[in-house]
Each structure stands twice: as structure tokens, then as C-alpha cells.
Fold these 4 entries.
Entry 1:
Amino acid sequence: MNMNTNEHNKKAEQLDVHSTSNDNEKLTTNQGLKINNNQDSLKAGERGPSLLEDFILREKITHFDHERIPERVVHARGSGAHGIFKLTKSLAEYTKAKFLTELGKETPVFVRFSTVAGSKGSTDLARDVRGFAVKFYTEEGNYDLVANNMPVFFIQDAIKFPDLVHAVKPEPDNEIPQAASAHDTFWDFISLMPESMHMIMWLMSDRAIPRSLRMMEGFGVHSFKFINEAGKVHFVKFHFKPRLGVHSVAWSEAQMISGVDSDFHKRDLWEAIENGDYPEWDFGVQLIPEEDEHKFDFDLLDPTKIVPEEEVPVEIVGTLTLNRNPDNFFAETEQIAFHPGHIIPGIDFTNDPLLQGRLFSYTDTQLSRLGSPNFHEIPINRSINTVHNNQRDGHMRQQIVKGKSSYEPNSIGGGCPFQAMMSEGGFTSQQERVSGVKIRERSKSFVDHYSQAKLFYNSQSAPEKTHLQNALIFELSKVTRPEIRERLVGQLAYIDTDLAWKVAEKLGVEVKKLEWPNQSLPADSNII
Ligand code: HEM
């Protein structure tokens, strides 16, 4: 096994135990019986019929019949690779997470890149968000940074996620992907969702069609928390910055590439790693002391907002290198199960209502995607430290736990693990004071939907602005209902009137002021 930068990679060693090669081996059944004829089924007479007794035929076909598992409900199309994260600057002042404090420490990782909306067989070059999910196999347990290549998200509250995904996925009656047909449902939803406008600016920009997976950024999106040994808290935003720089293709190129090679990104990543041209990212953090939580003109808990780098610079603290392709796509890239709730001491969640909903969603979906509560035992999902608890049984249980008892408290002993103190690495949630009335309402601090959309649009160069305008014109020209186009143009007017007029003119609609019964509009909302 060659992990190149790391001689003693504990994850690679662990996977090795579960790996096998069929080179120079004889064909066997799943029971280890050598097979003498793999060309013909067992028949009564030369011309049949086939016999039910033929366990070799039955086993082969039965296994084949069950080869497929459900694709991910989102992020179905993915490419993965193994690698190493190396810490180049200690964050001990901010977090007690060991892989971020011990200078020079190397932590094995598996990264899965994905598109969000398309099915498993869709094109790599879709105009879409890209997933950038990183599993750090740390000595304190798995830490997953389930990131995207855009720093903000469409919605502020997890309760809207199924609606967003239903709007972007193929329409329920004909199952035709929206890229190939009408775009009505997606743009209908978006035009009614002012909070999505910042993300829409990113999505319509060149960022949405990367040149290569090796040339895109990664963002944790939510604010998370760092907690140091003394219990001091900082908010943190995570960033990956590609050493090759950020590069995209133009829409016309994307369409051409999709026609010729819809696996363009997958192939590019695979070949680069095979050729020893290992992709690398600088890993950086934006750190905000807990006491500065309210010093911004947006809410740090709002996932539709960035923390501008001019206000809080990104500090580079490590390097992520991908240096080995998977041995088996299904066993590794498909079966890996990321979860933003996989954290370790020194890292904690914030009350971002999108993040809070994600914390429920991932294990829940993986139970149906991977089919058993024991999916943490699949080799790619195992932590490099050993797992000890009183969970038992369930479909496909692999671990053979010895001993008589599996409960706690326990005076009998005989196999029962006991909880760890903090000094022994036991995880404790940050003690945070919370108070308030139970309420189903959006915080007023989440209400400004346009300032950062404007900021992003204004940060674009002239050619980038033209691309963004053309993307909106192209996408909205596929919307069949004029009222949806008009409503979206109305949204654009709050970002940039020139942009709204240009798009409206090409679409043949008017720029009209929107009325939002339940939304407060920004101070400059009378711009039309
Ligand atoms: C995958 C739910 C928001 C990044 C998934 C999956 C679900 C899901 C169900 C499929 C997981 C699997 O089958 O293993 C949600 C919900 C969200 C949300 C409910 C909001 C409430 C986000 C955000 C990000 C993100 C904000 C980025 C920061 C990803 C990535 C994957 C993924 C990268 C693919 C992981 C992989 O490669 O296996 N999400 N998601 N999601 N999500 Fe989310």
C-alpha cells in the first residue's frame, strides 16, 4: 500500500485488513467452495430445464439482484480519494482538538466531491453546487467537515430543505431533470424565497461550473465553535483553498464537455492522483471570539451570510493532500457516510437552525441508504480508534463483543465499557446559557437577504458579471410561466437594478416592485 506522504497511515492499515485481491485465485462461492464451471447452469439433460438445486446459479443471480442500493437523496454523484491532512500551525489557543493542536501532525482523510441535484449518472459539468465532504480519521474519533464549494446556502432553516430539494429535483410526474426541460419548479421556489438570493448569485456565477474538482474551494458554511482547554469559545468558519487556484469553465465549454465526456471531473481527479500530481488545498479558519458574536451587521448563525475576509482574515493552518485513489468505488466512495454531527472534543455546533436540522438528517438517511444501524462498521466508516459501547445486534453486525453484560451502570462487569472523564478525552457539550420562549418564527436578525447578494455581485469583474447575467437569462428563459420570471426579476432588482433590467429585457418581462406580506424588506427596498 502506498500512501506516499505517510508511512504509517492508520486508516490505510485498517482498510488493508479488509482488502483482498482476486489475482491468481480460483473462483469460489460465498461459502468458499471452488467452482468448476462458471459457464453453464445445472440442467436436467443438455437442453434443460435448469434445476432449482443449482446453488451456484442461485447464489450468483441472487447477489446480482441485490447489487444496487439507493443513491443519496442529494449529492448522489460523487468522486472520492484518500489523503492526508497536515497541521502547519497549531490552534491550541482556540481548540483542544488534538489533530489541530499538535504541529506537524498528519491525519488520514477521505474526501468525497459531489454534485447536489443530479442523479448518480448525471454529468459532472452541471451548473450546481459541489459537495466537498472531508472525513478526518483522528485519534479522538471521526471528525467530518461536510462542506460545499460555496460559502452560503439557499435557506436559513432546515424545515425548508425538503421543499428546496423537491423544487430542484425532476418534476414528480415526468422525472425529467430540470437541466433538460422546464425550470419552473426550481425558479418558482427561489422567486418566493428571498433568503436564497445570495446563494443564487453564487450559483449563477462561474463558481458553479468548476474547471476541475482540484480547482475549487471548500467552505464549512455554518459557523461552528472551537473550545480550548480552558473552556474559552471562538466561533469558527472553515475554508479549503486550492493550491492550483480557483478556475471555472464558461457555460458554452461546459455544455460541450458534457456532450463529449460527462465524467470529466471524475476522470481528471482520478488521473491526476494516478499520475502523482496530488491535489492540495490550504486549510484555513476565520476565528471570532465568543464575545464578538453580535458585532456584525448580520447574524453569525445565519447560513446565508459570509464573514467577509476583509473583516476577519482566513488564517491558513494546514494542508490537505489527496494522494491515493480508492481501490473500490462502491466499498469506499459510495458507502462512506459523512455527518456534520461527527465531532470531537474542542469542536462544537452553533444554534444555526440549518445546521441543527442537518444534525438529524444524515444518520437518518444513511439508515435507509446503507440499510442497517451497523453501517459505522463498514471499513471506510470505521474510526481508527476502537469502538466500545453497549449497542448490540442489528442487521449485519460485524463486531464480536465478548462478555456477559451490555448495560451501564453495571456491577457485574464482564465486557461493559464505562464513560470517560473529560481528562480522558470524554466529550462534553459546551455549556451554553440559553433562554427564551418556545417559538416557531424566524429571528429578526436573519432578515436582510440582499446586502451580501449585492456585495457578491459587485465583487464580480465585468466579464464575470456578464456570465452571471447570461446564466440568469439562459435559466429563466426555460421557465414557462411569465409570473415566475417576473417575480425573480423583482428579486434581482433588490440586488442590482441594472442586472434586473438587463435580464428583464431579454426575457420580455417588466421589472415590478414585489410585495412580501410576511417579509421585511431592506432599507433600500423602494429602489424600483
Ligand atoms: C449530503 C441533508 C444542507 C453538504 C446530504 C444527504 C442528506 C443531506 C440527506 C445525503 C447523505 C447520505 O446519503 O449519506 C441535508 C439537509 C440540509 C443540508 C437536511 C439542510 C437542512 C447542507 C449544507 C451543506 C451540505 C448546508 C454544506 C455545508 C452536503 C454534502 C453531502 C450532503 C457535501 C454529500 C456527502 C457525501 O459526499 O456523501 N445532505 N443537507 N448539506 N450534504 Fe447535506
Entry 2:
Amino acid sequence: MKVVDDYFGCDVFGRQAMQKYLPHSVFKIMCDVMDNGKELPNEIADVVANAMKDWAVEKGATHFTHWFQPMTGITAEKHDAFINPTGPTSVISEFRGKELIKGEPDASSFPSGGLRATFEARGYTAWDPTSFAFVKEKTLYIPTLFLSYDGSSLDKKTPLLRSIQALNKAAVRLLHVMGFSDINKINTTVGPEQEYFLVDEEMYRQRLDLIITGRTLFGSAPVKGQELDDHYFGNIDERVKAYMEEVDEELWRLGVYAKTEHKEVAPCQFELAPVFSAGNVAGDQNQLMMEVLQRVAHHHGLVCLLHEKPFDGVNGSGKHNNWSIVADTGENLLEPGDDPKDNIRSLTILAAIVKGVDEYQDLLRISVATAGNDHRLGANEAPPAIISIYLGEELNAIIRSLISGKDEHNTVNTDLQLGITALPKISRDTTDRNRTSPFAFTGNKFEFRMLGSSLNISCPNTILNTIVAEEMTQFAAELECVSQEKVQEANIELIKRTFKEHQRILYSGNGYSEEWRQEALKRGLSELKTTADALPHYTEPRYLEMFGRHKVYTANELHARQNILLMGYYQVIHIEAQTMAYMLRKQIIPAVLDYEAKLASIIQTKKEAGIKFTMENKYLTEINDALELIEQHLEELEELIQKSFTDSKEAADFAAQKLLPLMDAIRKLSDVIEARIPRDVWPMPDYNDLLFRA
Ligand code: ADP
Ligand code: MG
């Protein structure tokens, strides 16, 4: 019997392996590189590379790869063997420092948004020693950044690392002026809860839409959906259990703290949540988790769908991003302390977050904007496309009293007390939860709930880190202007003022309701419904300036991202439109015509025999009316598909305003026909086959 304690992290070149394989002096330097961001001295790179190779070869590795996250959102890798010829018929395994530190993949086919012309293919990858190398399928994986030759980021990881640095700088500056001189470094902690669907592989193979687009473009409602609420937390059946066991084991070997798994609300929907880890590592590990979930499914005759909305009519999948800040003293800075001084600290950080989220709502919305996620947000199953913050009853009461100067928190059943600092104490356990809030405080962390299930979590975290860094910098600058004995007083005033000015972003009610939408719009909160609406705001001057100030994105990098994301959005929808047209022409229309012929001949036979055929006549008319309309729409769709674009915003608007509504109309008609046609005539597995066979 294998015990997880013995093999957890065995395929990771973590501290234990480093200690074993590196000379002690080099190990200490590596720790300094990992913990304090020190640069790796060139002369020890060879030693580290060689140790890594020895360790990996013992694990059966024959190849190495730089593992990076281009702006496609998924990971990329190119494998090189360790072999180096030593004579006409001999080789030795070799891995040099410079191969560890830098790689030069042919980068011409990755999206660059104009940052690099295609004829100038060279981009390079650079080792990220703050994450961990690992061995998977006989290959040593080295997490890397991906940059163009002028140092512009072509990936998702570089801005994330920059934003963690910016947050560190701002937080330490603020904490020092507040008197917390024992804190010299902070990091973010992130725990992403991953949702996914499982479908039977044989059924999946017969659905071109699932294969090509990850979602069903057709499908009338199943006989049972999620109305009984019987899937959520339900008993996990054997095939899925065996799958989860294998997923866990693989992830544990890779040092991922896979922890909680359960059935989700929709039929065949599940969730896997890890224990949180450092922001950067959490990003890499979530990519690994998604990859392992998908790969292992095939061993069990299943397919794992990470799309945000594979099925109409039941819930889609998201990814809750739990986020907090931890200091080098080990304290969680969002954790309310017993000491009034710590209490001021957590309230100051809360105030910075509230201000940041209010002022940069659009950026947070943009950070989760994708074609897939557009199907969820605002659809009564996921947060609306409007950002608001839920703080919980107790904190709300505290904030109300801070703002009004009256002791309103007495109404709340906790042991609030006005301390010497005139700030009430916050209890640790704010268990009241509001599942409908897009951005909720859950006791000692924030949970950003708008992410789609397939999203690379780097972008939302980059934005979150940067906006909080911005507010903390402003707070620090303000407090630095007052004399030391006045800092606390000024700090409390700052907290009060901030909450007062940004109250509009706080909301505790039902975030899914239409009343909230109306109220939010009255409050002046922004609602960017689609990706095409949201992304054009990315490059507003005030955002360019803010990202520039914190050295997270240059103006060029941000424009490039905007282009890539807008074009990507159009392309996803364009491919869906093409898939839809193909399935109609090749599968659905021929099958419906056959069935119509059959019905017509039944009617004819009945007519000749002089018996009743009114119902058959009715079915034939209904089916034929819908088919006629589909054929007309299809011609229009095929015309629209032909259009080409050079301007990415135009393309995105076209997809949102022309392609999607037409596809929606076609789908509705097709679903009407599907509901009236025998199962064996319908040319693909239906929702009953897909949702209840996993
Ligand atoms: P749920 O939201 O489903 O009720 P929990 O609140 O227990 O579940 O935790 C959800 C996720 O939050 C887990 O992945 C957990 O590791 C993560 N988490 C807990 N504390 C922190 C923290 N301080 N920073 C970041 N993530 C955290
Ligand atoms: Mg959660």
C-alpha cells in the first residue's frame, strides 16, 4: 500500500531534492535565489543544471523542456534529449547551465499581438527559479518565462512575477510606515478551486462540436437536469472515483496539494480544490492540474471538459480564485488579529483592496473575459458581469459605524469592542457566506469567483496584485507625510475616508438578482456584458499609466494583449460558427430530410388507406417549418463566416453582434426539431447520453 506521505512531491526538484543533489554552499545560494529573488550567479548554473539532470535521469528522464505559458493561455513545451555525442558511436547525458537558464524556441507561431514580427521568429525562454522543476513522462520540465528579444513579455507568467514584486514593494513600504518594521517581504497566496465536467469518451467522439469547440452547439434539454439538486456533494460512483484517485496520485507526485473533491451542481460536474500555495507556484500548479485532469480521464474511458459552458440549461464551470497576502513573519495579513495594532493593519489592507476593486472594476472584469466565460457571467448561475464586494454582516456593520461615527456594530452578535485605537475588533470567524458575490471576503482571504474554468489564473492575479499595489503605494505616500506620532491617527482617518468613498462597491444581497443589476447601475458600477464590450477598455490611459508605474505591463505589451484577446475571441466564435455550419450540412439537415421523407410516406400510406393522419401532418409541418428557417439562417451564417478582418475590435464586435445571435437562433430551431425526432434518427448522442453516462 502506497502512503502519500512517502511519495508526495517525489517528482519535483524541490528543496529536499536540491539539498540532496547540490553541494551545501550551492544549495544555500539557490535558497537565496528562490526566497529573496537574488540573481543566480553564472558560475553555479552549471552545478545546478548538472544536479537537476542527475536527479531527473534517476527518475527515468531522457529529455528536458522549458515549460512556458504563451498568450494562448495553455502551456507550451519543446523536448530536447540530454544526449551529447562524444564519438561516432557514443554519447553522454549532459545538461549545461546555459541550457537551464535560457532557451530559444522557434517562437514564430505563438501569438505576439504585434510585439514580434513573424519573420523575426526569435523569442527566448528564461528559467523561473521561484517555481519548481519536475519530471513527468520521462521529461524534466523547467518552468520558464517567455520573452521577445527586446525583453517584452510574450507570456502570462512574466507579468504575474512583476506584479508580485510590485505588491511586495508597495506592501512593505506601507507596513513600514505603519510601524511593522519586522516585515520585510510579502507574497501572495492563491488557492484555485477547479470545476470540470466528465463525459463518456465514446459519446464524446461522436460530437464534433465537443471535439472542436469544447461545448455543445446543439442539444435539446435532457429529461432531467439539476432540478432535484441531487448531484451536488452526491455519492461518487466507481469509475469517477478510480479516475479521481489516479488524478490525486499524479498531482501528489508532482507536489500539488490536491485536497478536496466533490460532485458539483450539474449532472456529471465535479470540483477539485488544492490547498493554497504561493501565487506564482499556484499558477503553474493549476496549469498542471488542468492538464492531468484531462490526460488521466482517457485512462478511464472518460473525457474531462474544462469549457465554461459545455451544456445549455445546466450550470457551467468556474474557478474560484482564493487570494490573500502572507508576510515573511508567517502572518496572513488579511487575518484579523487580537492586538488592536494588527486590527488596524488588516482593516488598512481591506481598505486598499476595496478601493482598488472599486477604481479598477473594469480591469478585473477584463481579466476574466473570454468567449467561453461570457456564457456564464450574468446567467443566474454565476456572478453577474458587474463587480461588487461582499464583506459579511460584521464587517459591514463595522464599516457603517466607521463612516457614521455611531456605534452601529452593537447590532451584530459578536464581541466587538472599541479598542484604544478606536477601531472595533473583528472576529476571526466570519462564517456567513454569500455564494452569489463575485468578490467575497471569507474570513482571511478574498474569493474572486468570476474566473472561467479553463482560464489561466495568472491574469486575474496579476491585475489583483497590481491594483492593490497601486492603492498601498498611495496609502504609504499619504502616511509618510505625517509625523510619526500622528501616523496611527492619520491611518484611522484614511481607513474611514476610504470606506466612505468606496461604499458603492459593497453589496451583501443576492448578486444574481435583477434588482441588484438595477441598483448597481444606479450606483454607477460598470457592466461590461461581453468580452467584446470589456476588452476595448484595457488600454485606457489611466490603466496604461498604472501598469507602467508598477512596471507590470508596458504600453506595447498591453496593446498586444488587447489585440490577441480580441482576435482570439473572434476566432473562437468563428470556429464555432464553422463547426455549426458543418454539422448542419453534413449531419443534421440530411438526417432531418430523411425523417421528413419517412413521415411523408407514412402520411401518404395512411391517406391511401383512408385512416387519420392529422398528428403526422402536424409533426411534419412543425419540423419542416423549423428546417426551412434553419436553411435560411445557415446561408446567412455561411456568408458571414467568409468575412475577414484586420481590426481586432471590429472582428470581436462582429462575433458578438452578428455571429452569436444568429448561431443562437439556429440552435433553438434545431433543438425544436431534435425534440420531435426519434433518438436513432438524430445523428449524434443527445444530452441524455452525454450527461448521464460518465
Ligand atoms: P469553500 O470556498 O469551498 O468553502 P474553503 O474556504 O475551505 O472552501 O477553501 C477554498 C480554497 O481556499 C482552498 O483551495 C483553500 O486552500 C484556499 N485558501 C484557504 N486559505 C487561503 C489563503 N490564506 N490564501 C489563499 N487561499 C486560501
Ligand atoms: Mg469557494
Entry 3:
Amino acid sequence: MTTEIPQPPTFPLMGNVLDLSPDLSPITCVEGEGQIHAFDRLALQYGEIYKLDLIASELINCNSHALVAELSNDKRFRKVVIGALAQVRNLVGDGLFTAHHEEPNWATANQILMPAFAAGTIQGMFDDMSDIVSQLLLKWAHGGPVKTFEPTEDYTRLAFDTIALCAMSYRLNSFDKEEIPPFVSAMSEFLTESGMRSARPEFLRPWYEESNAKYEANIKVMSDFARKLIDARKLNPQKSGNKKDLLDLMLEGRDSKTGVGLSDENIIYNLLTFLIAGHETTSGMLSFTTYYLLKNADALYRLREEIDSVCGTEPVSLKHLAKMPYLKAVMRESLRLSPTAPARVVTPLKDEVIGGGKYAVQKDAKIVVHTTSMQRDPVVWGEDANLFKPERMLDEAFAKLPAHAWQPFGFGLRACIGRPFAWQEAGLVLASVFQKFDLFLAEPGYTLETKETLTIKPRDFKIRAALRPGRS
Ligand code: HEM
């Protein structure tokens, strides 16, 4: 006998749509909350599993480690692209992140690009990464200790410039200007609107004329930018002997099994995919980690000791990063509490029963894995699951965690291809920032609030940065 999956009360004609539509419903949603907040609130109310009727589809939401461990099985469940991610296809079509599993371009792009994201290749990008980090350090040093910075904005500049330089040898130069470059704001507006569109019933879409026009205009700005980059590279290929970037690999690469290459259209989709996936998540992660460190003096003290003893005042290098276990634990713990890509969606390949024989789920059902709730499951992490404690992420303890307890980079075939890139970049940035600066919360009483685009980031988080004695 299976158990009925719990569901919040529904409204006539609207099902549970209003539970997730902050812009439509002040009744069911808390003012100002985004969709991801709404899911977190529902998880606290309904526990490990609940379903929502969203008229066009039903969503089954899973929040416990036990359920997620069961869903993390490529033989029984596979990724499905719905909601905000389906809207993102309006820009990046069958690029790696948003491709439906059966679309042939996913397998081709995956084959061609896997070697480009191997740890060894990413190490070759270290100097370009350091170049961009030095621009961030210079900006904060020039500001002096009284100027207020929004780390989320500056980390976004940094992550954008880094992925553009490493993936396509293009300098966005975001640190040169006070305002955010047009391409960057077009992308941010596009991602926010993709989230909003996914929360609105389809039949209301024509009413949002102004937003629709802006949405189309932003898509054009970004697609034109990527097309120009490809045309320029074709006219002016990188000279042989120069190291190849991701754009070269996509233009020249062939699937070793089929001999097929990528079309220009798919290369545009993947370039834009890297710009989205490569900046949103990493900049959010850097911002959350900075916040957690400023709120946890003991962890900051221990990290600082490690940085000082390993790097001294030398510029942070790859060799240094390999010798900093506490830094690694800090990054893992930050991604546990605030996984910046907080949900993924899977579907069963046949009718299934999950939860130890408890819940029946049908073939093609849409099941959301809520990584934030799952990574705070007290069954795995104890009663202090909501606290920032990097010690539980040091290698020895980490190795003893149950399988799938820590999953900020997704799972299996469709797990994050950019993980080594993000890890190297984030380690370099955090070690360099805390080596050089004493950071302070600009508003000492600030407590974490988040904002959502496709991912989550801290909202209204402001700091001041004072150079440490003896650093310049
Ligand atoms: C996929 C997280 C950085 C490129 C994913 C997924 C997650 C994730 C959870 C799986 C999504 C799903 O199942 O629907 C993160 C986090 C990052 C990060 C937390 C940083 C802290 C990056 C970077 C890049 C990147 C730097 C590129 C340079 C991708 C791509 C996919 C992906 C292309 C789709 C892979 C596929 O389906 O074949 N990422 N990511 N990510 N990520 Fe990342």
C-alpha cells in the first residue's frame, strides 16, 4: 500500500499556482519572496515530500537526503528541463545545460567539451584567472577602508570576465566601468524574467507586453554578441601554437564516435550557456562564502592562519591551493548551506515507488530535487545542520558522509561540467581576498537575505575592505 503525497490546499482553476507566484498572490506568498523561498517555506510546512498542481503540470518536491539518494540514479531517473530552465531555452536552445536528454547535440557537445573541462586543462587557465582576480583586488584596495562595496556585484564582474577570457579569449573589462556592462545587465534581466515567466500561467503571458518586448530585445543583444565573436574568430583564427580556448574546441572539435561537429547555432548556444552557468553560480558562491566567513569569526581566523602559513605574501598559486584543506572545507560548507543552483528536476523512466515503498510516482512525473533542504537534513547533519561549521567538511569527515549527502554540482550524466573551473576560480579568489584584506560588514547587524535569478545570491550584502598591515 502506498501513501498519498501531501499537497497544500488548491484554489479553483489555479490549483497551487498561487503558492509559487509572488507577483500574483499576496495571499499565499510572503511579500517579496521569490519562488525558491516559497519552496523552502513549503518544505518546512510539508516535510520530505509534497506535490503542487500547477495546472499544466504537477510537481513532486523532494527535500530529504533519503529521497534524493534514491533519485540519484541515472538508470531509473533522468534530468528533465521545465520551469525557468525551459524558459532559458529561449536563449540557449539545446546547449549543454538546457538540452533535453534525447537531443543529439547534448551528446556531441558533451564528447567534444569534456576534455576541455578536465582538471589539467583548467590548470592551464590559472594565469588568466589570476589576471582578473588582480583587477578585483586593485578595485577594493583603491576604494580604501571607508568605501562600501557590494561583493555580489564585484564577484559577478569577476566571474563574467573570467569565463569570457578563459572560454573565448574575450575581455569584457567589467572592472573598467562603474556601471554594469550592457551584455551583463541583459543577461541578468533575461534570467530574472525567465523565472517570472515560468511562474505565470501561459494564458496570462500576452498581458505582459512590455516585459515580453524587453525579453526579446535582451535575447537579441546576447545572441548578436555571440554571433559576432564566432564570425570574428572564423575570420581571424587563433594562431597555431597559441593555446586553444573553448571556442576553438567547439569550432574544430569532432565527436570521436560519430565524427560529427557542432553547428554555428549550437556553438552560440553553448557560448551563452558558459557565460550564464559560469558566472551566476560562482559569483553567488563567492558572495555566500564571504558572508559566512564574516559572520563566523572562528572559521575566518582559522582560514586566515592557513592562508598566511601557506602563501605568506606571495601571489596565490596552484601549488598553494593544493595545500589548503581548510579553504576546501570552507567552500564545501558554504555550498552545503547555500547551493547556488538550489534545485534540479528529474523524471522516472518507468512507473516507480520511492521512499522505501511509500510513494508511487508515474513515468514522466516531474520530481524536483531541493538541494538546499536536502543538504540541511538533520538525519545526516544533526540538529546544528543550519550552522556554518567547515570542520565537518575536512577531507576525513567528508569521506565518511553518506553517498549523495553533498550534491551542489548535481548528479551523474548531467552533473556540472564546469566544477573544476569553478573550484579553481573560487579557491584562488577567496585565498587572494582574505590574504590581502580585512573585510567588515558595512551594516554590522546585516543578516542574510537572498535574491533569485536562475540561481540564488545574497541581497543587499555590503562590505568594507581594509588592506591588512604589510599588504599593498
Ligand atoms: C550543470 C552547479 C559552475 C557549466 C550544473 C548542475 C548544477 C551545477 C547543480 C546540474 C543542473 C541540473 O541537473 O539541472 C554549479 C555550481 C557552480 C557551477 C554550484 C559553481 C559554484 C559552473 C561553471 C560552468 C558550469 C563555472 C562553466 C564554465 C555547467 C554546464 C552544466 C552544468 C554546462 C550542464 C551539464 C550537462 O547537463 O551536460 N551545474 N555549476 N557550471 N554546469 Fe555548473
Entry 4:
Amino acid sequence: SLTERLSGVFKKLRGKGRLSEADIKAAMREVRMALLEADVNYKVAKDFCNQVSERAMGQEVMESLTPAQQVVKIVNEELTRLMGGDEPTQLHIKNKGQTVLMMCGLQGNGKTTHAAKLGKYYRKLGRRPLLVACDIYRPAAIDQLRIVGEQAEVPVFEMGTERPELIAQKAMAYAKDHGNDIVIIDTAGRLQIDEALMDELVRIKQTVEVDDTLLVVDAMAGQEAVNVAKTFNEKIGIDGVILTKTDGDTRGGAALSVLAVTGKPIYFQGIGEKLDDLEPFYPSRMAGRILGMGDVLSLIEKAQAVQDDKEAEEAAKRMMANKFDLNDMLAQFAQIKKMGGASALLSMLPGGNQIDPDALDEKALPHIEAIIYSMTPEERAKPSIINPKRKRRIAAGSGQTVEAVNKLLRQYEMMQKLMKQAKRNPKGFMRRFSGL
Ligand code: GDP
Ligand code: MG
């Protein structure tokens, strides 16, 4: 995989005091190979490597990072840029009147599922979406939309096997009458691109004013997905992509090439079959995932902003080495606050989404601090000795309940377990990180 190849590359850079031009060249050769293996478009891979080497050579080596880390940092930043920058690109959702989203793409790529996912997503944001059944060729398609619409609690407009453009037009009138402000049109797909399909989509677009033509593509298709995107863009004009089944894709080739090849951003990604499995597409997170290290680099960057480099490195090292105890946890809270809160921090750690951010909620921090302050230094260093009797004492001393003490200890144990898991997993982030 790309992840493995890249970590192999960076391991080779390990221990070098300074990065020579030859080092960078050799590393970039490997990176290019890794990208090509991940099914990244040839030209995209080449341009990418040129970009990275240019930056790597021009830059003076930062004192706080090893040369290998520095290259990883640049690769990470360039990957992010390649996919659209730091923030997700927003759909063109209007605040007044009807916004029309049209799903298009090949059969089985996830149009119907993602029409419903988007419907649910916007309903939860307080909008009133309407799903429109324009896949008229298989009776099962309308049923499927009706079922997922029901699950999403989003109404479905259908007119059986009427012409799709007529259905779309009537749906607009229906939406106006019923106060639906986001109209999501599900369309038919084919196993392959054909003229009839394209014509049909063009006719829908000529009949209703589509704000976002969303191409739904399966991430697992790799380079082929990018070719599909290119063709759809040329034939009907797309505004952006919904990249589906990223839960199954480990290669990342599609995600990396789409923007560079089509000029169109990825708006959302599908991360599973359930209707909640939809996320705005964060290029930085995808870059981190491709590099296999969470958003650890941005974590380091943020840490650097509030601490001096050495201290940050120490804290990170202790965390990575699974050595942090409750004393460390306490010491980190001040930093957590400065770094934008616990949930922000957790979202950056690999596996951090497994931790309930509520349990480390900003509002809960003073309570947690109070509890830890009420422990003896020994208890803080070795939480396993905290028995029920000690718990009652700590609770009383901190003005908290025993349940709150238990909750904190559970949270601490979970974090430790997570660190251990990550360490045990040879392909996991810990090893790679400490191997830099
Ligand atoms: P359509 O033909 O383009 O409308 O595709 P469907 O919406 O019917 O989806 C085809 C299959 O892919 C269904 O079994 C979906 O459950 C599945 N699917 C769609 N999106 C995702 C995703 O993001 N992850 C996973 N694992 N499966 C997905
Ligand atoms: Mg469908």
C-alpha cells in the first residue's frame, strides 16, 4: 500500500544528520513509485514529486524536526494541497429558495445511498430536503430510494417511470409547495458510460437549475474513478465529487488525483453503508491517512505553537511511549485547553475517535483536575492502586462523586489501551512515528 511504501521511504531517511540533494532525489523516486502503485495518475505523481523536492531542497532544516520528519511534513502538506487544502469545500447550498443537487455516476457507486445520506445530513442541520426518484429503469430503484428515504426521515418524490426531466420539473413545484429547500435528485447509472445516460442527465440539467452536479464515485476504483470523473465532467459538467466506500479503500489513488485531473473538489466522503456514514472531505485527514499517521503532524504543529519545541517533543514522546500517567494527564490539560479543546485534540490522534470527547469535555476539565489534585502523588503515578476506599476519599476531597472518579479512571484506562493497541499493531502509527 501507499502507506507502507511511504513509511519504508521515510525509514531510509532515518538517522541522517542532514538531507542531501541525493537523499531527496532517492526518496522522491520511491515516493513516485509508491504513488503510481497506489493508482495515482502518472502526471499527478510526477508533478507532486517535483513540488516536494523543490520545497525540500530550498528549505533550511528546522531545528525541532529531524530531516526525515521535515520531508514527511512537506509531503503531508503537499498531499493536503493536492486534495484541496485545509478545509472541506462546501456545497453551493443557498439560504433562500430551492437548492438542487443532482447525483450522477455509474451503477453501484452509491448514488441512491448518498442521496439519502445527504438528505439526512441536511435534515439534521435543520433543512428540509426532498429526495427525487429519477432512476426509472428498474422498479427496485424507486423502492430503494423510498426505503432509504424513510430511514433518513426525508420525503421522497416519485412519478414511476415518467421521463426523468419531467419528474425533476414536477419535483421542483412540489418542493416549492411543501417548503422543501434542498432537492436531491437521484438518477440512473449504467455499468459503463454511454451516450443515452449522458443525454438523460443533460436533459435534466436543461430542465431544472442544478446548483451542484455531484459525481458519485467509488474510491476503490482508483485511477478508473478518475477517468470516469473526467468523462462526466466533459460530457455534462460536474461541480464536485462524492467519494464513496473510502472505508474499503486503502490506496488513496482516486482521492489524490481527482482534483488535479478534473479541477473539481471532493465534497464529501462515504465511510460506510449506514446513512450516518458520511463526512465532509478533509484533505488534511486524508493526507494523514495516506501517510498512516493520523493528523499527527498538525498535532505537533499546534503543540509547537503553545509550547517550546522541546517540551512538545517530550510530551509527544511520553504519550507515544505509553508512559503517561495521571500526572502527565493533568499536565496536559492546560495544553489541551490551548490546543482548542479535548475533542479537537482527540480528533487528531489515530483512533482518538474511539474516545468519548464528552468525557474529556472542556467543561469537565475543572472537575477532572479537581479529582486528580485530590489524589496522592503515588496514586497519580500508579492509578491501579486506587481501590474503592481511596475512591471515596478522593471523591470527598474533590467534591465529586465516586462515579465521576470511576469515569475519569475508565477514560484514562481507555487512553492507555489505545496507546498499547497502536503500539502492538506493527503497521500502526506509533511505530511509524517513533521510527522516523
Ligand atoms: P447506485 O447504484 O449508484 O445508486 O448505488 P447504491 O446507492 O445502490 O449503492 C451500491 C452499494 O454500495 C450498496 O450496497 C450500498 O450499501 C453500498 N455503499 C454505498 N456507499 C457506501 C460506502 O460509503 N461504504 C460502503 N461500505 N458501502 C457503500
Ligand atoms: Mg441507485
